From TrEMBL:
Homodimer. It comes from the Bacteria. It comes from Larkinella bovis. Involved in the gluconeogenesis. Catalyzes stereospecifically the conversion of dihydroxyacetone phosphate (DHAP) to D-glyceraldehyde-3-phosphate (G3P). Pfam families: TIM. This is Triosephosphate isomerase. It catalyses: D-glyceraldehyde 3-phosphate = dihydroxyacetone phosphate. It is an enzyme of class 5 (isomerase). The lineage of its organism: Bacteria, Pseudomonadati, Bacteroidota, Cytophagia, Cytophagales. The gene is tpiA.
Length: 254
């Protein structure tokens, strides 16, 4: 059975004190619901990961994640963070290929394939982002575009490696805009992605792949989105910055 996940992408937000307060609040609020099987991942700024870890001591349902890593293990890449570094501080998830990184830092599918490789080699679970622009959707090339992102970024992996991948479908037009995909639009794309995975890896691997939805998901729309048969949870940006709202989103993933 595939894992249900709700991941928060904090992006470049929060000072250290604010980050400690938010992690502590989320941890306390989630402790109350010990029976739930949802994995929560908090992708905070990498700078804070080591400091935040002790605040989640004993919390089996909340993991910390990074928002990116470099495709090389080490070297002269000023300002970058590597997968071995994340492993060395006990981090288990890393977001790769977020549309903001593709847009502002020029990340390509080929580069992301390398990032996926090094993340997996260091025991990290990649949360691999994909998603189309509004223009691509209006031109009806969105399905092919997103399928190609998966093919080029992930389909070089063996089935055993692929089993460690989490996918996040995030239509670019829905990220940070308040324009959420309808639950039908999300379900349509998630189903198509699952079929695409099945065509390469077989039905069992596809069935076990966690596919998250991201793009203006919040406490009001999360339950309907998560109720779709191929939506296994969410990657949450803005709504992950407030403990009560984020916790409500987590609890909506039943
Ligand atoms: C994101 O950036 O991953 C995201 C989903 O952002 P938001 O929820 O703010 O649209």
């Amino acid at each position: 059975m595939r894992k249900k996940i709700v991941a928060g992408n904090w992006k470049m937000n929060k000072t250290l004190d604010e980050a400690v307060a938010l992690v502590s609040e989320v941890s306390n609020m989630i402790k109350d619901e010990v029976t739930s099987d949802v994995q929560v991942v908090l992708c905070t700024p990498s700078l804070y990961l080591t400091t935040l870890k002790p605040y989640l001591e004993g919390q089996t349902r909340i993991a910390l994640g990074a928002q990116n890593c470099h495709e090389k293990a080490s070297g002269a890449y000023t300002g970058e963070i590597s997968a071995p570094m994340l492993k060395s501080i006990g981090i288990s998830y890393v977001i790769l290929g977020h549309s903001e990184r593709r847009q502002y830092f020029g990340e390509t599918n080929a580069q992301l394939a390398e990032k996926v490789n090094i993340a997996l080699a260091n025991g990290l679970t990649p949360i691999f982002c994909c998603g189309e622009s509004l223009e691509q959707r209006q031109n009806e090339i969105h399905l092919d575009f997103v399928r190609t992102q998966l093919t080029e970024g992930l389909f070089h992996l063996s089935p055993e490696q692929f089993a460690n991948i989490v996918i996040a479908y995030e239509p670019i037009w829905a990220i940070g805009t308040g324009l959420t995909a309808t639950s039908d639009q999300a379900q349509e794309m998630h189903e198509i992605l699952r079929k695409h995975i099945a065509s390469h890896y077989g039905a069992e691997v596809a069935d076990n792949t966690t596919i998250l939805y991201g793009g203006s998901a919040n406490e009001k729309n999360a339950a309907e989105l998560f109720a779709q048969p191929d939506v296994d949870g969410g990657l949450i940006g803005g709504a992950s910055l407030k403990s009560r709202e984020f916790t409500t989103v987590v609890k909506a993933n039943k």
